[in-house]
Prior knowledge:
Strand content: 5-15%
Order of helices and strands: EHHEHEHEHHEH
Strand order of the largest sheet: 2-1-3-4-5
Structural class: alpha/beta
Number of helices: 7
Radius of gyration: 16 Å
Distance between the termini: 26 Å
Shape: globular
Amino acid sequence: MTKHILVYSDSLTWGIVPTTRQRLAFEGRWPGVLHAALNTAEDHGRIRLTEDCLNGRRTAFDDPFKPGRNALSGIQQVIEAQSPLDLVILLLGTNDFQSMHQNKPWHSATGIAALINAIRTAPVEPGIPVPPILVIAPPQLDNPRGPIGPKFEGGDVASRGLAQAIRQVSEDAGCAFFDSNTVTTSSTQDGVHLDADQHHALGLALAPVVARLLTDEIVD
């Protein structure tokens, strides 16, 4: 039986090429790397992976310049539209620290908690189970620079401790958690996004984690 994964994220997953407005091909983005690794394995069925990733998406905050960047608005409709789902993967938080916001890690992590609740209470059809959720903490911002630098000025300082805050709300909610900082950093080009080799490293690192979740095993 084919298992269905939804990835709900922002430009780090959309695959923007740092310092450009170009996009990596699916097979070069971390969901594509993950998809290929899972479908190569022989210990589970086929995997279908759906991306819903939007540049500039925040956890639960609006962008004053672009509409529709609040992840909390519409997440229940996405869950309803894509169900049944075997797993939802969230990787959000980076854009909560754009310079137009005054957020601290607590605010962003609380946005993640609100998303978890929204996923679990989405109005799916009767009999469709609530999917497990894997929350991924984004890599720490590192001296944002280049064309995107002014948009994230000060974000590297404001976001310190974000991974720990997201870990706590994930554990409190009974969700699986993965810290991307354990396998990669933010881009060496702009300090915000992911370089091609970082997408590859993250996708491969997630494969065994996701495989265990899909087989109802406990993630360490």
